[in-house]
# Entry
Amino acid sequence: MNESTGWLLDIYAEEDGATLWLLTDGDQRLRLRMDFDITFYAAGDFPLLRQAWKYLRGKNVRLERTVRRDLFLGERDVMAVTTPDPANIQKLFGDLQRQFPALDYYDADIPITLRFIAQTDMHLLGRCRVHLGDERVQFIEPLSAPWEIDPSPIPLRILTLAPDCNPAVRNPQKLLVKYNQREYSLSLESPRSFLISLKADLQRIDPDLILTDYGDTWLFPQLSTWSKETGIEFRPNREEGRQVMMRKADSYFAYGQVTYRGAQAHLFGRWHIDRKNAMSFGEYGLEGAMEQARVTGIGVQEMARKSPGAGITAMQMLTALRNNIMVPVQKQQVEGTKTLSELIRADHGGLIYQPLIGLHGNVAQIDFSSMYPAIMVKHNISPETVGVEDASEGLIPKTLRPLLEKRLRLKNILIDLDPRDCRVEILKARASALKWLLVVCFGYLGYKNARFGKIESHEAVTAMSRELMLQAKEVAEDMGFTVLHMYVDCLFVQQDGFHKSSDFTPLINAIEEKTGIPIALEGVFKWVAFLASKRDARVPVPNQYFGAFQDGSLKYRGIELRRRDTTLWVRKTQLKALEILAHANSPREFAGRVPDVMRLVEGAKRDLRIGRVPLGELLIRQRLSRTLEAYKTPSPAARAARQLQVHGRQFAPGQSLEFLFAHNESGVHAWELEEALDSRKLDTKRYYRLLDRAIQTIVDPVRSHMFSERLF
Amino acid sequence: MDILPALKTGKLIVVYAPDAARTESMTLIAELGLRGAVTILDGGNQYRPYQVATFLRRKTVDISTAANRLFSRRAFTCYEMNTLLCSTPYHSQPYVVLDLLNTFYDDHVSIHEADRLLKSCLGQIQRLVLSGPVVLTLAPPLAEERGFLLEQVCRQADEVMIKEVPVCHPTQPSLF
# Structure
């Protein structure tokens, strides 16, 4: 019997089991086969189950009557359907469901990676020892855990491919190739020689990860076309005989907006990640995507493109599998009956205590660390435990506990590390990846498509958070602090004579003791400005502020700098203005810096007037919320899209595009148009207005301050 | 649109409007709450408790009595809507089902499945009609291919009320 040790790179289903890719300690890439039976369950009326049993009898499956646990309904008599052919389970299940739609199905749509992890106790990218016999895996032994803080680094071979321009704008002429420290380009002039060169590079390097720009939407579809045209076979998979798995583009509605997801190209035996089509890749990069794959059990190339919500769902499925709980294909638990009074009391979000408008000096911001997940874990809030006395640990807390602990440990390590330490960036990316999983876990308690969601558990979390925030406020006020603003999980407090971080330590300890949830000092602001509504200066706006910490660093929320549709020019100028203001050590000094800001603004406008601002810095990026035909009054983005539509570009809801404001018929000029905009046609006044608005946001707070000073 | 006089046990009333008659249904719920218990099943996140409470406050000082007679449940998928209707017990009281088809218009659910589930829901609604009047509010489908769902529901109704969208005539703004 052979034995190999290494990292588990990839798993996918085959007709006779599963294929595993192992990156060995000896730098080999091993393709391993393993027998892997898959079982799903059907429950319902017995006569119907009997018919289903008859229907399945002739197929290549093993049928069994057994008892399994549904999270909400408890033990159920079910029919277990076991197949040795994991690759065709979706077809088998689809056929059965079409024949017997009234049955309840469980465990039928669980990714093979999750089943494998639950069965073997392995984890993706984890270290393992594999025992082989007759060319198949006989036994696999995990040598690491996903919750390790310092996992042994995988020696991945990464090949980066990027065209020399955005293919949606113009035809690329070259493909830039990067491997290790070497960079070169391949000409795209002749598809034949390009394909031959790229094929040779792939064979020579044998990368584990192909990292591309526009790989999903341009490179891989183009490679396939060129391959057909030239007759040169091009198979970028490591798994021989497999084609690239292409997934179609789609638009979907999530988090209150229409999002467009481009087509996807997935590889077998190695990964492909398109940096331009990976949802949160910009946020936490490859390290973050790998960290999410490690803890969720979803493959790296999938996880890089999916939302953190998909990651949390996978983690919940894993917990369920490990605890012998069936995962329903369709959640059917519904809300309990509430009277109007009960609904009004229960159906609330987090607590918001409106800010005191204006500039404030020496203000501390203290945040509950991962408040909602911490509440779920500490108070055992899970769909099946809400309203149950002395319930054992629920599925959701069981899922979140290790995740929460790992993130807190990473955060604590980061606090202790020197910012120049080479590990900081990696740890930050990993902590951020875990943070996103924790951020969405609360929403998934109430999300309609969550497998284990229930609206009452969602309401219980917010109810508890409001109570904890009120407790924190009481503690702060009892200790003589003024609470300036509270927003869901953070408080802004102030007290005369308190300006050092250590001054606030007793308060933090007292709140933590009272609430039992970890709380940390975000920092002490030299000054912070809470903004008023632009429509009515008497009305405060929650979570819209900017301020300078004592080390001069800035923090801002809800202002133009944070908006994606703000032009780079406005953002840069607003940031420079804030940096000028950050030199002020108190609200009083803040007013003294305003003339410098106004000089900066005049300079920026002058630069724009005389054409010294690159057009690329003036781009507005906006998203289409519907199809172009559905616009009654087209937005600027829709008008820009129509300019491109004339040239054959197609747009789907959720797609973003860039444009300039211009003096022409439609008032905009799409950036992707072949002909560049004559800079004399730029609508400079429109840009002035955008800048004035952004600057007004940050100098407005000083008005009330100056005015109040004049009274004395 | 006055729905109240049309209510009668054994009668299924469908109210069709672009916004699933949100305002009218809230007024109806409040009016019914002043008279007795009501079961509200919300399929489109249409129930506005504050709006109903405001309406009740205009009509009575004893809001809590009326508020405690309004029993609501929400469904966020068509599977949940089916479960909701199946688990709603008989009461001799009115039932208001808000935006019944909203979750059936979800393009993540196949047309075949939506059709199957709607048939099951309509069966349950017929069961409820026997014990009290049932009002269904409906909105138009997002995609034409799901229009047949709307027709199926309307076919079962004893009365279909259609809310006309007011036509806005252009008027010159006042100059002085």
